[in-house]
Specification:
single chain; 7-stranded mixed beta sheet; 18% helix; Purple Acid Phosphatase, chain A, domain 2
């Protein structure tokens, strides 16, 4: 059986829903068995709060306004079936307001969130891939904290697992959530994520991997995403902040499970249909298509997992963007342990060239062979402890996106500015 993220409990009323179980006070992340709290999807009127407890229990969650008045009293239940994890969704909150929260009477200065404003005109998104529990990754989480990011987007290999064994999957997610700097960041910055090969279950693998259902179960338990694919398959999802809508693609679950040897699928029919519907419906000036797998074929020798080895699927992507007349599309990827900026030659078909930002790694492991030539290569660097910082703002009828390849020391290694009105790239600021 595939249990979905424990229980996602919804809290709307300001009244306290009585708890029949006795609740003992517990310190979040007080042992190797605890984790959280972690923020999930955050909108103008709602937030998701995730925790893991040492044993199945029902916890009391209180949400307080800026004056310290309690505006919600909710219960958050964790279960054995969900590996003692649970997610609470708090609804009907006022926009643009800073709240604090407590769990079982315990609170912390870092346990807060701010609902998105009604006039949501800016955001600062951090994208990263390839991270571990070491000191180098911790330095990146601290930099993101200093940069005051409004969302953290993990693109996969976060964590490294390399098995579909459910117990091992769960244990690795618990370990990844434990380090203090990561725990501090996600206690007040919403986390969104997709997977790549190592967290899916094996290096360079595809959707034929036995046991992938276990990997999906662990993700639904340990990541408070807005949604997880459709009909129990895949983990693709989307969210919006400011002028940016992010579409987190799943390039593993369906890969090579449909089509034939000459034209294998990458995203799968259902995900393709979702992406077309979602792109067509999006009103965001910028649409970021993000996944762990790079959107090009310029990779190290014999690497079999990139969009470049699915040429028909890459063409379908360009055709879909053209068919939906989507403007302001930007590509973000990771995986390869090297950071690059690539211009895709799509102006004749889309009216603008697609820009791809490859961001990897958050940890210290570089792969120099991941720096082969590409006709559209604009920038390339092997920089440990690095990530992509995206600032987007709206002014009147126009919007601007500034993407920075950035390191843990706070240095901008490369900057690109994109205007949504034309989809074109302006000179670097």
């Amino acid at each position: 059986m595939n249990f979905i993220s424990g229980l996602i409990l919804v809290c709307v009323s300001q009244l306290f829903f009585g708890i029949t179980e006795r609740v003992e006070p517990v310190s979040a992340a007080s042992s190797a068995e605890d984790a959280g709290p972690m923020l999930g999807d955050l909108t103008a009127e709602s937030v998701k709060i995730w925790i893991r407890t040492p044993t199945p229990r029902t916890s009391a969650v209180e949400i307080s306004d800026p004056d310290g008045e309690i505006v919600r009293r909710c219960r958050l239940r964790t279960t054995a079936e969900s590996d003692h994890t649970g997610t609470l969704e708090v609804l009907a909150l006022p926009p643009g307001t800073r709240f604090t929260f407590s769990i079982d009477g315990k609170t912390d200065a870092d346990w807060w969130f701010r609902t998105r404003p009604t006039a949501d005109e800016s955001c600062r998104l951090a994208f990263g891939s390839c991270a571990d529990e070491g000191a180098g990754s911790a330095s990146v989480w601290r930099r993101m904290e200093s940069d005051e990011v409004t969302a953290l987007v993990l693109l996969g290999d976060t964590p490294y697992i390399d098995t579909t064994d459910l117990a091992r999957q769960r244990a690795r997610y618990r370990a990844f959530a434990q380090p203090a700097d990561f725990a501090r960041l996600v206690s007040h910055v919403p986390l969104y994520s997709t997977w790549d090969d190592h967290d899916f279950g094996r290096n360079d693998t595809d959707g034929n991997l036995p046991g992938k259902e276990n990997s999906r179960q662990a993700v639904t338990e340990y990541r408070p995403n807005p949604s997880f694919g459709e009909n129990g398959e895949g983990i693709y999802t989307s969210f919006r902040q400011g002028p940016v809508e992010v579409f987190l693609l799943d390039a593993r679950w369906f890969a090579r499970t449909q089509g034939d040897a000459n034209d294998p699928t990458l995203l799968g029919a259902r995900q393709w249909a979702w992406l077309e519907r979602s792109l067509a419906a999006s009103k965001a000036p910028f649409k970021i298509l993000a996944c762990g797998m790079v959107f090009n074929g310029s990779v190290r020798p014999f690497k079999t997992d990139c969009w470049g080895v699915y040429p028909a699927e890459y063409q379908r992507l360009i055709e879909l963007i053209a068919r939906t007349e989507a403007q302001g599309v930007v590509l973000v990827s990771g995986d390869v342990h090297w950071s690059r900026v690539i211009r895709h030659d799509t102006k004749d078909r889309l009216g603008y060239d697609l820009m791809e930002f490859v961001t990897s790694p958050i940890h210290e492991k570089l792969i120099p062979a991941a720096n082969p030539p590409h006709s559209g290569l604009i920038f390339s660097v092997g920089e440990i402890n690095s990530f992509l910082l995206v600032d987007a703002t709206t002014e009147g009828d126009s919007a601007t996106l500034v993407a920075r390849i950035r390191n843990a020391a706070g240095q901008d290694l490369h900057v690109e500015k994109i205007a949504a009105t034309s989809g074109g790239v302006e000179p670097n600021p």
